[in-house]
Amino acid sequence: MLSYVIRRILYNIPIYLVIVLVVMAMLRINDPVTAYLSKNPTEQERKLKEQELGLDRPFLVQYVTMLKSIATFDYSAKSWYQETNTVGEVIGPSILPSLKITLPALTISTLLSVCIGLVAAVNRGRMIDRGLMFFAVVGMSVSFLVFIILGQYFGAFWLTDKLGTEIFSIRYEPSRLTGNFFADWIKFYSLPVLISVIVSVGYDTRFYRSVIVEQTTADYIRTARAKGCSQRRVMFKHLLRNALIPIITRVMITLPFLIVGSLLLEVYFSIPGMGRTLLTHMTNKDFAVTQTIVALLAAIFILSNILTDVLYAIVDPRVRLS
What we know:
Residues 95-312 form the ABC transmembrane type-1 domain. By secondary structure, this protein is mainly α.
């Protein structure tokens, strides 16, 4: 097993090196120093700023320095936008708020989608299956932004008006934090998580239903039923176990996209997560923070791929031999 994990890591390292190389090259297509200094900087001003920011060094040296900082978690370079803070001090506080949205949303949407997909597959062709698939298609068809607007209106304004007290807030305000993790999460994070779950469930339910329907026609399912196994035992012990590989694939692919997709939620709910931090510093031409966040997001994609391969090997040992 260890040798398999090492092989997967070695296989993905060159891919990550190429991704970082491409990202750094693309960010340098337009001179970042000239963009940062705005209109008509003099040549002397530009050169002084290049020296200050380390951009006067050869590209290969900058590339190696970037890889070294990622590998050693050394983010001591200065932010261009928040000049008194380092890149690490800017990015560090934004990680936990993003995880407070991403991890609960991923967990709830996966469990809910698998359960709904299982119910729909077991009742394939019946009214309950058609009804669930109708709502799944509706959920897929409506824009993410529409769900955010509706969620803010009904979850915050309308509900507050009806109950006379605020349960969900549409704006993250540090001054209103109580110090109680659960209470603060309910007020500031539960509504974005609920919106993210609603958006994800439509796509995931259709996928899991198709996977489960495909498994229901397999020989081992017919054999289990012929032996007299109950429907519950067939579904939960035999079918779901064999459907784990596509489920794992879906979950691990979804995770990085949920982190990136939380950008809209973080912007509309003023949550200081990685997505909002990236957008803020891109807008303010903060080259150092932008390239570091993009490189970290790429690392998350690569790590999710490695973790997917490892989970494959645990679920199905035949994968290691192939």
